Amino acid sequence: MLYQRNLALGAVRASFAQIMVLSVACSYLFSVLEMSCDIFSNACLLYSDSTPT
Questions:
Q1: What is the pLDDT of residue 21?
Q2: Within a 13 Å sphere around the CA of 28, how many CA atoms are in the beta-carbon half?
Q3: Could you tell me the residue range of the domain that residue 35 belongs to?
Q4: Phi first, then psi: what are they for 51, rounded to 5°?
Q5: How many domains does the chain have?
Q6: What is the CB neighbour count within 10 angstroms for residue 12?
């Protein structure tokens, strides 16, 4: 009985750890995406400024 409860607790902890890792990975991915978008838009602004209209 106690063993089964510990097993269930372990499974819950494992899934919680998985969720935590996933959310951290997602936020990292989003920040990288945001950064590359900023770089891209800055490059576009620089390019449009440097080209004679």
A1: 96
A2: 6
A3: 23-53
A4: -80, 135
A5: 1
A6: 10
